[in-house]
Amino acid sequence: MRRFAHWSITGTEPVLLIRRSVGQESTYDAVMIALAAAHGIVLATWPTPPIIAIGVWWTSNTIAHNFIHRPFFRTGVANRLFALYLTLLLGIPQSLWRDRHLAHHAAMRPRVRRSSELSVQVAAVLALWTTMAVRNAEFFAGTYVPGFFVGLLLCAVHGFYEHHHGTTSHYGPVYNLLFFNDGYHVEHHARPGVHWSRLPEHRDAGARQSRWPALLRWLDACGLNGLERLVLRSRVLQRFVIDVHARALRSVLTAAPKRIESIAIVGGGLFPRTAIVLRRLCPGARLTIIDASSANLDRARRLLDPAGVEFLHAWYSPAHPQDFDLIVIPLSYVGDRAAVYADPPAAAVIVHDWIWRKRGTSRIVAVPLLKRVNLVCR
Fold first, then answer.
1. pLDDT in tens, 284-324
2. Where are the beta strands (DSSP E) in the chain?
3. Nearest 5°: CA angle at 159, between 38 and 339?
4. What sign does the CA torsion over 138, 143, 144, 148 have?
5. On the CB side of 282, how many CA atoms lie within 13 Å of its CA?
6. Most buried of 121, 205, 255, 345 (most Cβ within 10 A)?
């Protein structure tokens, strides 16, 4: 058993808490220390802009981030020395990084707290940068500085999309292996003192999720939505999309377990093709369109006869109580699609998915769209 210094915020000042760590967690921390050393060796051996940028981004969001919440050593001196090493490795004073991050967790505005540790870290960075600039100005200006600022940009994009529209998790196994469960971000905010290795034990079934890691999460906005906007510009494309969806949905609905009187359509506000089709296939059914974008809902209101349609501005979560005969999940669903298949949140659920993912009663929508619909039932 080993004691850890754990930093958190109470009020406006960091407070040092003492925690005990089990042996397995100690081993994991030793791995992070070794990886930080390896980062230094790689940086000294191949100091290229991509190595510098990726190093700043990856180490800041893995090793430095976990060190903020659960410092690796039992003594304050050892933790301060390791923070100084990370400061030189990343070019970022770790006292500033720590205070900024803890203020973020406490929903407070970050502020600079003057301390001897911060002074030493700032002086160390300035000394390192001055030495590089004097001894090799071309390398400093043409290699180190561009790599450093690209790394900061990657960190900014990463942090932005982890919290865009609210704190969001990503449960991809490869990403969480390489980033030490950083994808469990909703869970981390709920329990910032829990060791990263134990976050999967606290997985939140109702967490806002994305199928993309934070750095690629912009694809949620400009990928499928961009194609939807393209369809909106062409009546020919709109007719094609509605016709192919109508054929596929008509086919799978024959396997629905009972008469459908209430339908929830998740998303679907940007171009409400599913609502248009289901009004034809299920006349008299009550439709509810659930969309997190008020602009998309306003657009759907203009394209649909509002009679018998409810427009709900909200994020959909399968964990919330459901009262629908049929729920339709879009291809752009931000959530755990596997969980929807494993435990359908309604008597019948239609999931729009990629053409290579066949589940339940399934029909291909259109080969050019690389898309199919899957019906799963309780």
1. 889 998 888 888 888 888 878 777 788 888 888 887 767 89
2. 2-10, 13-21, 262-266, 286-291, 309-313, 326-329, 348-354, 361-366, 371-377
3. 95
4. positive
5. 26
6. 121
* Per-residue model confidence (pLDDT) at position 4: 39
Which domains are present in the chain?
A: 2-219 (no CATH), 234-377 (3.40.50.150)
* pLDDT value of position 137: 96
User: Helix (H, G, I), strand (E, B), or coil: what is residue 195?
Assistant: coil
**For residue 68, pLDDT beyond 90:** yes
Relative orientation angle of helices 235-253 and 273-281, to the nearest 10 degrees: 50
- Which pLDDT tens digit goes with each residue over 134-154? 999 999 999 999 999 999 999
The C-alpha R_g of the chain, in whole angstroms, comes to 25
Is residue 300 within 8 Å of 311, Cβ to Cβ?
Answer: yes
Give the position of tokens 């449960």.
Answer: 171
Quick: pLDDT tens for 200-221.
Answer: 999 998 899 887 899 888 766 5
Only one residue has tokens 């369109």, namely 289
Task: Decide if 86 contacts 187 (C-beta within 8 A).
Answer: no
Long-range own/partner contacts, residues 305-314 (CB < 8 A, 24 or more apart): 308/279, 308/284, 309/275, 310/286, 311/269, 312/288, 314/290
Spatial distance between the Cα atoms of 278 and 259, rounded to a whole number of angstroms = 13
Report whether 328 contacts 264 (CB < 8 A): yes
DSSP states of 310-359 as a string?
EEEES---TTS----SEEEE-TT--S-HHHHHHS-SSSEEEEEEETT---
Tokens 């390791």, residue?
Answer: 82
The pLDDT assigned to 272 comes to: 80
Give the model's confidence band at 224: pLDDT under 50 very low, under 70 low, under 90 confident, else very high.
low
Pairing of strands 361-366, 309-313: unpaired
pTM check: above 0.85: no
CB 330 within 8 A of CB 228: no
Place of tokens 């089990």: 22
Question: Picking from 16-25, 240-249, 312-321, which range would have the lowest pLDDT averaged per residue?
Answer: 16-25
